[in-house]
Please model this.
Amino acid sequence: MTTAPHQPMPAETEASRVRRETHRILSEIAGGADVTDPFAAAVRATRMPMIVTDPRQPDNPILFVNAAFSRLTGYASEEIIGRNCRFLQGPDTDRDDVARVRAAIAARQPIEVALLNYRKDGTTFWNQLLLAPVKDAAGEVAYFFASQYDVTADVLQLAALRGENAALSAARATDAERLQFSEMALRLATEAAEIGTFDLDVAADALTLSERTRELFGLAPDAACDRATLRDGLHPDDRETVLAALAAALDPERRAPFEAEFRVVSKADGTVRWVSAKGRGLFDGRGRAFRALGTMVDATGRRETEERYTALFEAVDDGFCIIEFIDGPHGPASDYVHIVANQGYERQTGIAGIVGRTLRDLAPDEAEGWLALYGGVLRTGESIRFERAFPRAGRHIEVSAARIEPASRRQVSVLFRDVTGRRRAEADLQASEAQFRAFAEAVPNQVWGARPDGTLHWFNGQAYAFTGAAPGALNAAATWSDLIHPDDLPAARAGWDRSVATGEPYEVEFRIRGGGGYRWFLARAQPVRDAAGALTQWVGTHTDIDERRRQA
Model:
């Protein structure tokens, strides 16, 4: 028997050796406890999910999966081996990310991407996939090695941060819109109210002025401005005061509000205008002033009005003052201070230097009485008017007081008017009337008085004694209609009406009932006129002519 000649085994290629070695390692990873390869031991022991796929087989199936991957996905290894990784994808997995993975596999390129995957129980998790090709000695891709890591918490936190960032961005955008709107509204409001603004950059010594402020200073729209511009535009008499106020506003120790009223001289035409300015300094974290900003308003019209008012205020003879209630040792609103007074106040009251002085300082013994009067005006808002003698001035003064609104200002205005002449005239008139009535009571005739409109208002005692009328009854026209003889009444009435209408003297004869019968009287009345010729009253008499008429 002949034997076939011995055929030598073909030499093992490097590629087949790599595949054989890889297969051995995978077998050890998947096998039992006898693991000799350190790499296999590490892959089996790691808590990071890992798989190996074979791109040379149709649909690039999974050849190996470690226990960590099964724990992550909920699938047993026998449910995973032989399947493509796409079985972990679901309806919400981003198709663009899947396309990127496929493109990397086709190009045999590594890729790292976060995919939304689905577990066996249907719950989702974010999978940070790191896919890398494993090449053989010839440079061909023999396997794909993939590690996964559950980054769900990170993704959710990132989403939350992105949401917060979006909310912050939206809020910032809203704030920006509000700021833009506020700035626009402020600009429109200041323009409508003709309010100018200024903004001083302290470090750069740059002064930004609004259009209205430039008009006040007579500056061109494009003219550069700095602190020197402000200084040069101030009236020489006001310059030192204004600059001192600005320095106080920029002083870190004082930080005083910038409030000043001053004159500016227009650089364009030399016009002098009054300006009312308000502002404040801004300070950095180190307490250094870096900016000052504020407003400027043309106060020329107001100042001119105030000057005219002041001139009128001082020219009137009436006294005027404003008092402001203050709290003190005696309790709330237990005193007041005079904050304004004109020269007429001293003329009317005889009290000088009233401004700045309190009631309890000026008249401690009379304080409670004045506080009760003016305090009532402050509390109720009801004005009062009364007369009072001021011995210092030798005058009698009519005092009027009214609350200045709002009541929170705690101020009352007081007007003093000299009524000494009127009071003297009234006293003289009363004395004259007393003398007249004494004379009228002494004469035998009936004497009476009437007002300018003909209304009777007084009769002497002889008239009442003759007629027997009750006191005051003769003042009624109806009474005389009954006392005068019916045949004489029309003529008596017509004559009286004519005299009242023309102001001419009254004279008529008629019979008056009294003493049990009628007697004839001659009635006469003369108009009394003042210095201006105005009729002030009528004075009349009834003279008994009964004997003469009977003899005739």
User: Anything to note?
Assistant: The chain has five domains: 14-150, 154-184, 193-304, 316-422, 436-551. The longest strand covers residues 517-529. Confidence is low (pLDDT under 50) at residues 1-10.
